[in-house]
């Protein structure tokens, strides 16, 4: 947990090395490939065999589906405090993403032709919900419902007795999902991609998962669409002397407890004193948490503390890391500068009261965010991801006459005389 100075020799190389994402182990690639092949070739029987071999589950294909009555029952039986939290999250997530709903439009271009865009919700999408993660059901399902996707299907792992977390089922039900299956991991992704005798394939799959699940998404991409390939959780906190060490330590520990042991947490502080106080708090608070063993592994292998001299240097570190979660625990007059300067973070939490966990559960933005420095070129899950778009072009004869010279010029430049002819023939007099 030693500090790394921004201006020390070899800093950039050490930062780059720490941020490197390890290649997917070959045994994971091979295992996933075999399971997907079994499902593609054997359908329901392949799923049943895989669940029996890997999870010790003996389910018949007739038992895969979770009935609507089971989901409705979960809503009725769920404790009131859980139900209240779920409804609050759904409301906030829906309100946030309603602002970003795409709108079809038309206009006139310089030729006088009508141009525009039409947006269509995807016909059938699949939601993958990892074990017990009711929040993920909301962060995908609420967006799909808002987009008015006509067919929504969810997959989630079950226990040895076939049971599914009631909070997950209640979340799915309240998000309008009527079709759900107690199938998890690679089997779920394969089923969504290829379909079986009893389960229809989907157009696109949404949702995070472990290394095997993410690799499955990677392998089926092209057969169906996928949203993201999210890896282990990440957080980067920029803290100056105004930061509350207790708050910062708690947020770093929160992301370290996820469970893979490969999470990465970054502390970027404006002085060694700040870093020292935060590390001391980490040691104190860690003793109070239940996942201490997992957290220790992350602190040992996945924690980097960087000391910078300026806010500009802090922003440069953040933009290089492109963290999943970005916290700005700095004096208020620096929030505006850093928010403008940092351009690669998945989500930016502004100020000491904005814990990352709020974004994970209830604030509104989806918690499915880019990891592994993919924030350099991609963004977190948005409602538009549940749509496809068609561009519209409608020319009249008069508009075509204005466009023809430029179109024919491009055809000539590119040696595509057929393209040019397809335009000029429309203007020939017969």
Structure write-up:
This protein has 3 domains: 26-226, Rossmann fold (3-Layer(aba) Sandwich), CATH 3.40.50; 231-377, Rossmann fold, CATH 3.40.50; 397-427, no CATH class. The chain is built from 17 helices and 15 strands. The protein has helices at 11-19, 26-42, 44-55, 68-77, 80-98, 134-146, 166-174, 185-194, 211-220, 245-256, 272-286, 292-301, 311-321, 332-341, 356-361, 397-413, 417-424; strands spanning 3-5, 65-66, 105-108, 114-121, 124-128, 151-155, 179-181, 204-206, 225-226, 234-239, 264-269, 303-307, 325-329, 347-350, 387-394. The strands form 3 sheets. A 6-stranded parallel beta sheet has the order 1-12-11-10-13-14, with helices on both faces. The protein has a 6-stranded mixed beta sheet with strand order 2-7-6-5-8-9, with helices on both faces. Strand 3 and strand 4 (114-121) form a beta hairpin.
Key attributes of the depicted protein:
430 residues; alpha/beta; Rossmann fold; 3 domains; six-stranded parallel beta sheet; six-stranded mixed beta sheet; 17 helices; globular
